[in-house]
Structure formats: structure tokens, C-alpha cells
UniProtKB/TrEMBL annotation, chain A:
Stretches the record annotates as Disordered: 203-225
Domain DUF1549: 83-277
Name of the protein this chain belongs to: DUF1549 domain-containing protein
Domain DUF1553: 319-429
Keywords assigned: Signal
Residues making up the signal peptide according to the UniProt record: 1-32
Gene source species: Thalassoglobus neptunius
Pfam families cross-referenced by the UniProt entry: PSCyt2 (PF07583), PSD1 (PF07587)
TrEMBL record, chain B:
Species per Swiss-Prot/TrEMBL record: Thalassoglobus neptunius
Record lineage: Bacteria, Pseudomonadati, Planctomycetota, Planctomycetia, Planctomycetales
Coiled-coil segments on the chain, per record: none
Full protein name: Sulfatase
Length: 542, 429
């Protein structure tokens, strides 16, 4: 272990030198400055990088000299390679058999939830199930990845991820602008590197003579909101950057050395120094009246040239995060999050990775992460690769032991906004109801599915909320069902509309029986709708 | 009136269930039942003793300064401008912001030598509510969930753990004993009125249970079972006669005023009502203690509310004879730096886990004891350090729970409630 560390250290030092070189060389490209004179303190020839356009231009320069992009190497790693490798490693861990591949009806429900963020309509289900083309699953995957719903799903997810731990004043952030910006980026299949680069390097400044709520912090510019959500505080930005974009939890190193990991308090503050608008001071742990200056240094030891101005230093921080080829955490964190969203478990907890030994099937996730990088961090490539794999298309099972991970897909709770969307699909738009659902089902999307739990309040809301229930008994679905004379067809339609699947034979006869034994058909139909909306399946991906 | 009487359930055979009988007994009706009769049911004295025990945890979110609460350092520069006032315990002073509790101090105790390990909020709030540090994938349950698990009636029609404000959850003990979160103290929980009643509601619930069973068959055993459990609990709550304990109905204006009109005071009053109604664990919170800046500007109001609400709660519990079986503990996630920082616009104190203080009383905890001591500059514990684990061992003991009992996690791993701690014996009667 120690030996490995020393080797890594040496490589880090080397790459730091490279990156610093990049910083200076590209600066010459931009300004066409004369060749650098020999001397101990090279002059700062970088442009100021004060506005976001300059920053992006500069990051783009670094990107173009980034080894994996420059080499134009493309990944040949596909879904089949992924499955082969993963199944090999799984068989070494456990004898639990792999779950069978799901049938078409289950697949269509699952893939709509995962890619479009909603249940498929009954027409969409019928069309897919009756289609006989052998490649219909991958065709549907391709179609869904191009929809606006896919981009919206990812944008909403990242909005919640960034804001769920934010205590920023509402007047100084604009989560919707953030979501809309992400939506555009995901829709255009921008690289994840560019999006993060823009978020992390942003330095939103206060507008003079403007109230904060009137775009006083330039919060209407979407990408500014990562920094604003973290209240522009260097410590918060550093902690969120490591947690969200590298999957490493170092926040507690703000006050003392990490209790269970290798991160030292000083390292945390060196990282925070990248995000300081001026000189950065670390407060003494025992005597807060004492402070010492801390120079910026990224987690792998990368040091920016001392001459950099704050805006430039922040861009350098973004570059070290994203374009240091040794920072495998960056690509892997995104891969792990997507995997976690699609299979219900990550290779490790998405935002609290300690030592690397906690990573399950490390070689698989590293390979997938490296390929994601070769594919220029394109989210759609990653989704396509995972969605087409057998690993994703397995039946669900509640996984109890770590060794059994990925032998099946873990059933997952839907996100609050997905539940409210599905409810609105049934009863029509309603702001009050929607916000009640979002509030009551609120969850931090970085918490692993296995640790999420429901609450009595959620049950009470679905059972008894007046608006929901009144709208349900007056819904167009209800009217449609009431027109159906054949009970079998009625129950089938209710299932497809509410749960996005057909009932089993047993379910069919159970509800037919209920209709038959009820004194009023009207009441029986209300009961069926109530039961289906309250069922665990209504809020679960299976 | 004893609300325990309201929820006597009969089992399928028409007999009073054992748990409920014990509740009856714990509620002061032991003499009616007769000890011999209880013995015949296999009830031992130990079990009898812990029946009816409750705990109210008052959590000061953000971590209060020990020097501005119950361990002031007047005369030392680290003490800042805070003055000290004499308490009912001879030789023990509180900070000036706590006049009401100072008068009552002879009835509960202070620990001034708490020794923590976590100085980040999230980790500290977890440590001080569970007795375990946040480590690895296993989530240890909140102490309240443990109490609900050990002392709560699993068939209760009202949650065994209520928290007025968001808190740490039940970890591997599951939703069965998860905290029921109330966001607005004094109001009924939302959506408790059923849409349908009687036979039709029952029929719906039966169909729902079968429907959830279908998801079990589809491989989602855990989610579906949990769902069924939550709906069962929700249904019981909807018809519970004890629902009114969540409100302030029937409380006199005088009582309400004594607790204070603020949210914290209301929470304390609701906590008393819930405990009175037989809820074994209630958490109450007051935030705003993370005073890196403006400490002396903010402390009078923040401390004033807690001083008022907590002292009213204490007096009320005492007057109603509930103190002997109710543990009350008031604490935050850690302490604050004895040295004052230089933050603008006005100074404050930063995070500090090396030493902090708390109040503990009721149940079998002695009154008037001051455990431990810190140096005059506040930087060191000079006498009798108490670890978080020691505190939890003490809490377990006074609640009639074995601190060294092993719990089995769902992965089959045995975990001791307290693994490296010993009860603070000088606190126990």
C-alpha cells in the first residue's frame, strides 16, 4: 500500500509540472506573448479571466491539450464488454445467481422512468410490447436519450443534488435558472467536464445598487448557482466540489484531520484557498484568534503558480479537478452516480468515498470511467452503454449483502418530483398538491437507495389528502373507466394508467371480484384507483 | 387523567395483550392488577420498573458555547463579557442568560466535562444523538429509536418516537421506530382525517395489503414491507384518541404563557403532552447556536427562549409527578472555542469538541450534582472527563436499558449499544 502511494506521489508531481506548463503555454497562445525569460518568478501572462467567457475559452485550451481528447482515442468499451467483465468479477464474489433479464413490459416501464422520468403512457406501452423488431430495446433507448425529458430529468437531479444541502439565502440563488442551464447542456450532450468547469470556475459578483432578489448576484446566469448555493464561501465550495464532483467526503477535515481517511486539515484548507477572492487564511484549530496564510494546493498536490490572481487561480483549480489525468475520481464520480441512479446501488456511496478499498468491483468502474473520459465525458454515451447492458436489464431483487451487488437491480424509490409528475398525469396540474408531495417525499438524492425510507406522513398524504382524492374521483381516467362495461377491460385500463403495466391474472380476478361484490360500481372504481395510487408500486421503480 | 387507559387492545382471543397490561401496570395500576397475577404472566421486576419511562431530549442545534451556558469563566479573557450568576447548587454558577434554570439547578445536574470527538455539525449531531460516530455504511439508530424499540409498545396507536424538527433517523432499526417528524408544534399532523370510514376503508386497506404483496413478489420485498408497516401505523394514528396530544387544546393561557409564545416553548409544551400520553421519546429543538459571529448580540434571545421553555417544562413535569419516570437532557452537538475569534462584524466562537457541557435530570438522575471541571481558561478538562459513550451508558441505565446489549444489524453484525463507556455513577440515585 505504501509503495503504491509513493509511486502515485511521483506521478502526481510529474503531472503537476505538466499542468503548470499547460497553464503558462496556453497563456502564450492567448496573448501571443514573447517567450518566457528564465527567472525564478515568471511573470503572470495569463489574461485576467474575470468573465465567464474568458474562463471557458481558457479551459477549452487546456481541454484541447488534455491527453485523452488530444489523442482522439475513442473508447471501444461497450455494453457487452461491461457485462463480460462485471459478470466475471461477480462470480468471484458470490454464488447468488444472476437475476433473469426483464420482460418487455417491465423494461418499458423501467426505462421510461430512468430516462424520461415518468411512467410510459398506455399507448407507448402497447406500441413497444407489440413491436417485434429484435433491437427494439436499444432503439427505444436511443429515442428516449434524445428527448427533452431526458435532459430535464438529469437537470432536475443535479439541481436537487446541489441544493439539497444548501443554506443559501433564497434571494441570492436561482435554482430554476440552474436547472434550465443544465437542461440545455444535457440536451446538447455537452461534456460533463465543460459543465463542471463552468460551475466551479464561476465567480459571481454583486451588482451595485441592485437588490439581491433582482438578479443582484447574477444568479439568473445558470452556472453561477453552484457557487451561490455554497454561499460563495471557499470552505463550502471546496467541500461540495470534492463531494459532488469527486465523490470524496472531506468536509469534516475543515475542523480536524479526517477521522477515518488520509485527508489532513491542512489539505482541506489548501483546496479551499482556490476559491478565495483574495489571500486565504486558515484559523488555528485551538485558538481561533490566530490565523495563518494557506497557499492553494489541489488534493493531488497540484500547486498553481504563485503569481495567479484569484480568478485565474479558480480556473486553475477547475483544471486540476477535471483535466489532471491522474484525478480518476472526477470521471468515476459521475459514472458512479449514474450507475447508482440506474441500478439502485453505486460501486461505492456516491458522495462519501473513504479509502479506495471501499469500492466494489473497482476494475469495472475504473474501466467505465476511463472510457467515459475517452468519450469526452458525454453523458449520453454513458447512459447508452449502461442501459443496453444485461446488468441494467435484470429483474429486481432486494440486495442484502455487498457481495451480491449487481446480481440484480435494486428496486428504487422514485424522486419526489417524479411522484408528483405521475400524480399530475392522473389528476391534472395542481400546484398546491404538487408542492405538498414534493415537501413530504423530500429526500437527499445523494443518499443511497438502501438507506432511504418512507414515512407515516407520506402514507397519510396519499391516503387522505383531500385535493388528491377529490381530483382522483373526478378525473378523466375515472370517467373513462366508468364508461367501460367490461370489468376485465376496466381493471386492465386502471392498471396501465396508474401503474404503467397490465394486471396479472390474479390481480384481474381480485378486482373483478371487488367490483362484483360492491353495491355501487362507482364506489368500486374509486376504491381501485385509491388502492393503486396508494400502492408501493406507484412510488417504486421495479 | 391517565391516557394509558385509552388504548387497551384486545387480541384475537379477546384477552388484554401483555404489553398493554404492562402499560396499565406502569401507569400506576399495579395494585389493581396484583403482583402475584403479574408474576404468573412471567413479568420480572426489572421489566416492570422500566415501564412507563420516557425521555425528552432538548437539542440545541448548532452547538452552544459552554462558557455562555453552564460553565462561565468570568474574570478570564476567554470568558468574554459574559457574567456569572449563582445557581441553587452551592458554588456552581451559570452564565447570566439562564436565571430561571439557575434557580432550579438543585433539581437536575450539570456535566461540564463532556469530551467529544466530532467538531463538524453533521458528524456531531449524529454522535450526540446515537452515541456512535458516523462511520462506514452502517447507520446506528437515534437514541430515541432505541428507546422506542426497547420500551415502546409496537402496537401503539401513536408513534413511539416523536421529534419536533428534523433529526437523525432510526438507522438499521428501520421505519418501525423511525422518528415521527412534526414541523409545526401545536398542530395536528397533516392529513390525519380518513377519506372513508368503516367497512369500506377496511376493504381498501385489505386490497392495498394484497397489492403490496404483489410488489414483494416482484422483488421489492423491503420497500413493500416497509410500505405496509407505514400504512398500518398511519391507519392507527388516524383513529387514535391520543392525537390531541399533538395540539395545545385544553391548556390554560397561564400554562402557555409560562412556556413562552415562541416555537421552542410550544415544542416543550407539546413534548410534555406527548410524554403524558405515553410516548416514550420526544425530541425538541432550538437552532441558532452556531455563533461564529455576533455571539453576544444573539445569545440573550436564543438562551432566553430555552431558559424559559425548559424551566417551564421542568416545573410542569415535576408538578404532574412525571419527573421520576422522565429523563430530560439538554445538549448540543459539541462546544465552542474558549478563545474568542476575530470575526466581523462582531466576534464569536468556533467549533470545539474537546470540552463542552450539558444538563441532565429526571428519571433516576440525582439533582444538584455538577460533574467535572474545566480550567479557568476553559481550555482543559481538569476533573472527571465524561465521554459521549459514558453519557449514553448513563442514559441507558436510567431508562432501564442494558447499555451493553448487542443489537443485530440486518447484515447479521452484532453491535453493542455502548461499547466503550461506563455510566457516570455519581449521577445515578
Amino acid at each position: 500500500m505504501h509503495e503504491r502511494f509513493r509511486r502515485l506521489r511521483r506521478r502526481f508531481t510529474f503531472c503537476v509540472a505538466c499542468l503548470s506548463g499547460v497553464l503558462l503555454i496556453t497563456s502564450q497562445c492567448i496573448e501571443a506573448a514573447p517567450p518566457r525569460k528564465k527567472g525564478r518568478n515568471p511573470a503572470n501572462r495569463l489574461p485576467d479571466l474575470k468573465d465567464s467567457e474568458d474562463k471557458l475559452k481558457f479551459l477549452e485550451q487546456i481541454r484541447s491539450s488534455f491527453p485523452t481528447v488530444k489523442s482522439r482515442r475513442r473508447s471501444t468499451y461497450g455494453s457487452a464488454d461491461l457485462d463480460e467483465q462485471l459478470e466475471k468479477y461477480i462470480s468471484r464474489e458470490t454464488r447468488t445467481p444472476l437475476a433473469p433479464i426483464v420482460d418487455d413490459a417491465t423494461f418499458v416501464r423501467r426505462v421510461y422512468l430512468d430516462v424520461a422520468g415518468r411512467f410510459p403512457t398506455s399507448a407507448e406501452i402497447k406500441q413497444f410490447v407489440s413491436n417485434t423488431a429484435p433491437d427494439k430495446r436499444s432503439v427505444l433507448i436511443d429515442e428516449l436519450l434524445e428527448t427533452e425529458e431526458f435532459a430535464r430529468k438529469l437537470a432536475r437531479y443535479w439541481r436537487t443534488v446541489v441544493f439539497s444541502e444548501s443554506n443559501a439565502n433564497r434571494n441570492s440563488v436561482n435554482p430554476q435558472a440552474f436547472e434550465d442551464w443544465l437542461f440545455e447542456e444535457f440536451h446538447a450532450d455537452s461534456g460533463w467536464d465543460r459543465m463542471v468547469g463552468e460551475m466551479v470556475s464561476a465567480t459571481p459578483k454583486r451588482k451595485k445598487d441592485t437588490k439581491p432578489q433582482d438578479n443582484g448576484w447574477h444568479q439568473d446566469h445558470g452556472p453561477n448557482n453552484f457557487v451561490l448555493a455554497n454561499e460563495r464561501k471557499p470552505e463550502l465550495i471546496a467541500s461540495a466540489t470534492a463531494r459532488l464532483f469527486m465523490g470524496i467526503s472531506i468536509g469534516c477535515a475543515e475542523c480536524h484531520d479526517h477521522p477515518f481517511d488520509k485527508w489532513k486539515r491542512e489539505q482541506f484548507h489548501e483546496m479551499a484557498a482556490f476559491f478565495s477572492p483574495g489571500r486565504y487564511y486558515m484559523t488555528d484549530q485551538y485558538d481561533p484568534s490566530q490565523k495563518s496564510v494557506v497557499e492553494a494546493k489541489f488534493l493531488l498536490g497540484e500547486k498553481p503558480p504563485k503569481v495567479l490572481k484569484p480568478d485565474q487561480r479558480r480556473v486553475a483549480g477547475a483544471a486540476y479537478l477535471i483535466y489532471n489525468p491522474d484525478n480518476y475520481w472526477f470521471a468515476r464520480a459521475f459514472v458512479n452516480r449514474v450507475w447508482n441512479e440506474l441500478l439502485g446501488d453505486g460501486f461505492y456511496s456516491v458522495d462519501s468515498l473513504g479509502p479506495d478499498k471501499e469500492v466494489m468491483h473497482q476494475l469495472v468502474v475504473n474501466r467505465l470511467a476511463a472510457s467515459f473520459r475517452y468519450e469526452k465525458f458525454k453523458p449520453k454515451w454513458l447512459y447508452r452503454t449502461i442501459l443496453n447492458s444485461r446488468a441494467y436489464q435484470r429483474e429486481t431483487r432486494t440486495i442484502e449483502r455487498t457481495e451480491d451487488l449487481f446480481t440484480a437491480v435494486r428496486p428504487a424509490r422514485l424522486r419526489p418530483y417524479e411522484i408528483s409528475d405521475n400524480v399530475e398525469q392522473l389528476v391534472g396540474e395542481n400546484k398546491g398538491l404538487s408542492s405538498a408531495i414534493n415537501r413530504t417525499f423530500e429526500q437527499d438524492p445523494s443518499i443511497p437507495q438502501r438507506d432511504l425510507e418512507g414515512s407515516i406522513q407520506q402514507a397519510l398524504l396519499m391516503m387522505n389528502n383531500g385535493t388528491l382524492n377529490n381530483k382522483l374521483i373526478n378525473s378523466s381516467l375515472k370517467k373513462q373507466l366508468m364508461k367501460m362495461k367490461d370489468s376485465k377491460a376496466l381493471v386492465t385500463e386502471a392498471f396501465v394508467s396508474v401503474l404503467a403495466r397490465e394486471p396479472t391474472a390474479e390481480e384481474l380476478s381480485r378486482y373483478e371480484q371487488h367490483i362484483k361484490t360492491s353495491s355501487k360500481r362507482n364506489e368500486a372504481v374509486d376504491d381501485i384507483l385509491w388502492v393503486l395510487v396508494n400502492s408501493s408500486e406507484f412510488i417504486t421503480k421495479r | 387523567m391517565n391516557n394509558n387507559l385509552l388504548h387497551v387492545n384486545l387480541n384475537a382471543g379477546g384477552e388484554i395483550t401483555r404489553r398493554n397490561l404492562l402499560r396499565l401496570a406502569g401507569g400506576g395500576f399495579a395494585s389493581l392488577a396484583g403482583a402475584g397475577f403479574l408474576k404468573s404472566l412471567g413479568v420480572n421486576a426489572e421489566e416492570l420498573k422500566r415501564q412507563g419511562r420516557s425521555c425528552i431530549m432538548v437539542f440545541l442545534n448548532g452547538a452552544p458555547s459552554q462558557m455562555e451556558t453552564w460553565d462561565p469563566k468570568p474574570g478570564h479573557e476567554n470568558g468574554g463579557p459574559t457574567k456569572a450568576i449563582q445557581t441553587a447548587i452551592p458554588g456552581v454558577e451559570f452564565a447570566e442568560y439562564w436565571p430561571k434554570l439557575a434557580k432550579l439547578a438543585g433539581e437536575f445536574s450539570v456535566i461540564r466535562s463532556m469530551k467529544g470527538k466530532e467538531a463538524a455539525h453533521e458528524r456531531g449531531r449524529f454522535h450526540l444523538r446515537t452515541g456512535h460516530r458516523l462511520l462506514g455504511p452502517t447507520r446506528f439508530p437515534h437514541f430515541g429509536s432505541l428507546v422506542a424499540h426497547k420500551l415502546g409498545d409496537p402496537e401503539s396507536d401513536i408513534p413511539n418516537f416523536v421529534s419536533l424538527g428534523n433529526t437523525v433517523s432510526s438507522g438499521f432499526l428501520g421505519v418501525e421506530v423511525a422518528p415521527f417528524i412534526v414541523n409545526q408544534a401545536g398542530q395536528l399532523p397533516a392529513n390525519v382525517k380518513a377519506m372513508q370510514t368503516g367497512a369500506r376503508q377496511q376493504r381498501r386497506m385489505e386490497l392495498l395489503s394484497l397489492q403490496d404483496q404483489d410488489l414483494v413478489a416482484a422483488g421489492a420485498k423491503r420497500i413493500a414491507h416497509e410500505h405496509q408497516e407505514l400504512y398500518r401505523k398511519a391507519s392507527k394514528l388516524m383513529t387514535s384518541l391520543r392525537l390531541k396530544a399533538f395540539t395545545l387544546a385544553g391548556e390554560s393561557d397561564k400554562t402557555k404563557q409560562s412556556y413562552g409564545g415562541h416555537a421552542f416553548g410550544k415544542s416543550c409544551l407539546v413534548a410534555r403532552r406527548l410524554v403524558e400520553a405515553g410516548v416514550p421519546f420526544v425530541e425538541v429543538q432550538r437552532g441558532g447556536w452556531d455563533m461564529h459571529q455576533n455571539l453576544w448580540q444573539n445569545i440573550p434571545k436564543t438562551a432566553g427562549e430555552v431558559d424559559q421553555g425548559l424551566s417551564a417544562l421542568w416545573g410542569d413535569l415535576r408538578d404532574r409527578g412525571l419527573l421520576e419516570k422522565t429523563l430530560v437532557i439538554c445538549l448540543g452537538e459539541f462546544g465552542r472555542t474558549p478563545k474568542i475569534n476575530q470575526k466581523a462584524p462582531a466576534v464569536g466562537r468556533d467549533h470545539w469538541a474537546k470540552n463542552f457541557n450539558l444538563l441532565i435530570g429526571g428519571s433516576s438522575i440525582q439533582g444538584g450534582v455538577c460533574v467535572g471541571e474545566t480550567s479557568s481558561d476553559g481550555l482543559e478538562i481538569t476533573d472527571r472527563p465524561v465521554s459521549v459513550e459514558d453519557l449514553f451508558a448513563t442514559m441507558c441505565t436510567t431508562m432501564g436499558m442494558d447499555p451493553y446489549e448487542e443489537l443485530i444489524t440486518p447484515e447479521g453484525r452484532p453491535l453493542q449499544i455502548v461499547s466503550e463507556g461506563f455510566e457516570v455513577s455519581e449521577l445515578l440515585t
